[in-house]
Design a protein that fits this description.
The chain is mainly α. The chain has a single domain, classed as Na+/H+ antiporter like fold, CATH 1.20.1530. Helices cover about 75% and strands about 0% of the residues. It has 14 helices and no strands. The radius of gyration is 19 Å and the shape is globular. About 45% of the residues are buried.
Length: about 325
Amino acid sequence: MNYASQLVDLMVQVMLPLSLLVAAGALWPRFFADTDVEQMRSNLNRLVMYLFYPCILFAVASTTPVDRDLLSVPLLVGIASLVSGGILYVMLYRLPLWRHLTDQTRAALMLGGMFGNTFNIGAPVLVFFFGAGAMRYAVFNDMLMTMPVVWTLGVWIATRLGSRDSATKQPAVLGVMLTMPPIWAFLLGFACQQLGLTYEPLVNATRFIGQATIPVILFVLGMTIPWRNLVPRGEILAVAGIKLLMTPFIVWLIAPQIYAGMGEAQYAAVVEGTTPAMMTALLLADRFKLDAGAAALLIGWTTILFWITLPLIMALGWIGKA
């Protein structure tokens, strides 16, 4: 398949439905003016966190054997995220750029620039390139890289770089993680797979329920982006460039140095690196009193620019067939 036909297929099969879901979330409050947007977002996020997302994690983890290639995805994406974080730290905290920014804004941008929406946007793109089984890459990357690093290093960035008030009570990170249903669903599924206890009807049921995860989250994403305030700001666009172009480039650059060439898993890691800023950046900003407005702007701009940078990355040959 040549580049032009592949790009058309990507637009029709992936970008169109994703865009329609985001647009539906953006337009919902305009058509239903009595909607309590914050309450609706909170309830939908809770539904995803406690039901839909744990179900899809259990279904994938309970049917996926773990091998070296699969583990290469969280490793490569994790390395690229840390390198990008180092670049962002220098750019935001050490270089004489954007002196007017507060620590709360710098930390919010650093979090958004380091971690991508690797499941909700990454999974549909992975399935397009590599088939339905490729969802396992997004699941294992989320569980083995994104969630542990966000709730350790990410919390450290939020509390130490975002607020230098030593009197601020630090959260119990391990306690926070242990209260998350997705963690337990993934571990239960993984244990079932390892012990040979996978029960196919249960897997099918949880997979069916979990299919609602991505549509609901993309709908919420449309409600989250501050559409009327999407003014291009230098610091936002600079961080977006690091997230959308530098991170996948780092994965593409280091993967052949660690592994013997580029296989499907390594290309999948590049795809995960291309994803726009994660919505959890806004959650962290709200929770730890960072600049939630800047986090929302970064999520909005990276989501919009993703539809441009992904075709560019495809044209550069960073994503291919093994």
